[in-house]
Amino acid sequence: MHVKDVLCVSRFITSRTICPLNSLERSGGESTKLLNSYMSSTPFETQKRFFHKYFMIIFEIVRLCKILRVSENLFPPLYKKINTKQFVCVCVSSMYELRTPMLAVMDVSMLKTILVKECFSLFPNRRNLRLNGDLYDIVSLSEDDNWRRIRNILTPAFTTGRIKEMFEIMKQHSRKLTDSLRPKAHNEEVINVKDFLGAYSLDAMASCAYSIDTDTIKDPSHPFINHAKKLLRISIPLFLIQGFFPFLLPLLEISGFSLFPKSCVAYFKSVLEKVRAERRGGSHQTQMDFLQLMMNSQQEKQNKGLSDHEIMSQAIIFVAAGFDTSGTTLAFLAYNLAKNPEVMRRLQEEIDTTFPSKAPVQYEGLVNMEYLDSVVSESLRLYPPIARIERVAKATVEINGITVPKDMIVTVPVYALHRDPDLWPDPEEFKPDRFSKENKQSINPYAYLPFGIGPRNCIGMRFALVMVKLALVEVLQNYSFSICKETEIPLEMDPTGLLGPLRPIKLKLVARSIASANVDN
């Protein structure tokens, strides 16, 4: 038995409950009553029983591994093996993350209640691990009225009009991306796709957010990209300490411990302080980027604007999180297209029809490309940027017969939800036609959550989609992706940070026959 096998099953249990069939066959909904009884335990009682349940969970994991003969490459499609005579999967589960009791929900009707209908009244806030250092007031961790204030101030930065203005900035960096790939295709080199696509994402984010040119495509060792890569890699030892010993949290906070690397936060703060100092002189105030819109909020008398610290925090997380998620999404797209060349050819046909003779990409044409949208949506289904969503119950509530106690963390395992065979036929297959105009209407909106849903969904969703689609179209105008002997199939996911591959995705580029006409009219 390998440690990897145990982690594999443990990770699966956090997504789908594995219950003995005889417990589900009891009459009168007894299994629901048992779950309610378990979930209604007081925190004190829960902690008293922790060690007993901890060792019981480990025992069950080991026993299950032996029964199923789990192999190292079994995850993620483990649920295919679970539907045996001994076990069955259900869509609501109680579980522990270290010492923290949680409720995992994949039932779409419950998700509608939690994420939308009762979002403001009962589930307004995300989970907060508290050890956030200087990023304690980012919008994703802000709560209640403070979150509403920050969200309302940031929302105008992502309107259609603003995105159209930023589109021209994005195009400058997409051209640099295609140019940087040309010698690689000519020499038939194997490339780490994230190195190029991630650099494009970061350069575009930095220009749209701060109006600075990092040009990490040409300078991959630039400190900006090095710190951006590390910022969301939280400290695993510190995460385990706060999980196993929550009583130490106040001491850890006072001592200045942070899940986010302090050196990375300090670097971005120094960059932003320099940019803000230049703008206070007045010469740069016409730059209507993300940073300037936040600075302007401080001059509005009718609404309480953002403080200097809040501006700093939102500016840092916008670039770091946007770079990581967008760059990884593009890398997964390249991987899926390389594995499915017939899909890539069909997409290139749509691109060539929309922008004949490799004409410059225009905003309206880009957002109206139906098959492009289907391809991106299907890739996001297989590899969502965030593997799970979390909400905290503000009060005890009963949903579909399940009692959720006050302060209970409700987690939505998005990665598992997107691969549920009851919701998605052939869930492991890359089939963009699931999201065609004809089929999209039949998809339950609560079964597809790459950006979340409801009031607390991803604020930069439309911005990110435009940036991703632009890069994909311009690259496919000039090149095709292909797998090679260095391409890992299937991918193994990195258990730390945001969803991404454990090892770099490596592909080959093949230049298309017609020379690029990547010049603006």
UniProtKB/TrEMBL annotation:
The keyword Transmembrane applies. The keyword Membrane applies. Its EC number is 1.14.14.1. GO terms for molecular function: heme binding; iron ion binding; oxidoreductase activity, acting on paired donors, with incorporation or reduction of molecular oxygen, reduced flavin or flavoprotein as one donor, and incorporation of one atom of oxygen; steroid hydroxylase activity. It comes from the Eukaryota. The chain crosses the membrane at residues 231-252, 315-338. Pfam families: p450. It is an enzyme of class 1 (oxidoreductase). Keywords: Heme, Iron, Membrane, Metal-binding, Monooxygenase, Oxidoreductase, Transmembrane, Transmembrane helix. Heme binds at C458. Its cofactor is heme. Gene3D superfamilies: Cytochrome P450. Belongs to the cytochrome P450 family. PANTHER family: CYTOCHROME P450 FAMILY 3, CYTOCHROME P450, FAMILY 3, SUBFAMILY A, POLYPEPTIDE 65. This is unspecific monooxygenase. The gene is LOC115370575.
